[in-house]
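Chapter review: from sequence to fold.
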Amino acid sequence: MKTLIKNVTVLTVNKDNEIISNADVVIDGQIIAYAGPKKQWQEEFSQVIEGQGNMVMPGFVNAHCHAAMTLFRSYADDLPLMEWLEKKIFPTESRLQGEDVYWGTMLAIAEMLKSGTTTFADMYFFMDDVARAVEESGIRAVLSRGLTSTGNDGGEEGLRENEEFVKNWHGKADGRITAMLGPHAPYTCSVSFLQKVLAVREKLDVPLQIHLAETHDEVEQIQAQYGVSPVKHLKNAGLLESPVLAAHCVHLSTEDMEILQEYDVRIAHNPGSNLKLGSGIAPVPELLQRGVTVGLGTDGAASNNNLDMLEEMRLAALLHKGACLDATVISAEEALAMATRESARAVFLPKTGMISPGKKADLLLIDLQKVHLTPRHNPASLLVYAAQPSDIKMVMVDGKILCRDGELLTMDEEKIIYHAEKRAKHLLAGI
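The token string follows.
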């Protein structure tokens, strides 16, 4: 199937930040076949989309999320991280069942698609049910089972589940699902358990994702226990020899940043969650200066409280300007790249995240004919500083339209809201 989107502005988000006016985009099956100046096409297309007054751009890549935590939205707000986890989230998560996770993930995917996210990275439980939601909805996802060594069996069952999940789901859903191993954090995984995770990783040859240096408490705990920072602790444990996606990385020393740079650790920056939990502000400008790959994530809806990457992108640009007292820090182009191209790199999916021939057809059509998007001097700045989810006219993943004019085409929104509300009430009953 071939689709032509004609008469559009193309925001490529390539390395040169190229913007193509009066352009056409051709999608052949799952792949972008052409993105360039308007042509007089002689061939027949299965679908022609008139794009006058619209902009084509890559879909957002949410580099860190716990999708099913939509069920905990507004449940445990205004608490510091460790109290939030230990007194509210962990006890409630112990009651989770597969159907809870399925409907919570469906709710998250619906929210993400309607706000332009075409790929998300997820670490949670009951990952077969997460994968089922991904497969049915048509979105792209990078999935791992969250692993800790704090349980009665020292994490053995979770590690077995993660291994089986990788074997059963990696590359499935027409290649839209890729899998990782998910050790939760340095403070929830013993060194001996991390060695077991590494042994499984060597066998499966997939990346790892982990929470890292999120709070002062974590840094102090690891320092007291091992005599080093969380980053150096993971280096000493051998974890950074593997491909790693590290979420947060808020509290970093100069040595930590040198280690992250040396080992090409990919980072998921979560400004909204870090602010809401009072965790701090990650040194993103310095990481970018060092050439470290930094993508953007929302974290879960229990600590954000939405999954809107437009908002996250805007926060990433504004937060660091204010923190550094420097209006030139994190430009609109850099923030946009962090939400698309660099996030795709962070989750080890180089075939998405930009509009270019040969890349996956994961893209958005943005309606520029809005009062808050007029005049249109700089499309990247418009998108970062002024755009809203309601401006997204179409969402496409793998060449298939999943959302048009705010309407989900592969999901029953009313049914999802009903079941998610029902599962959330059941989970919190009696707590």
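Two observations follow directly from the output. The chain has a mean pLDDT of 96. DSSP finds 15 helices and 18 strands in the chain.
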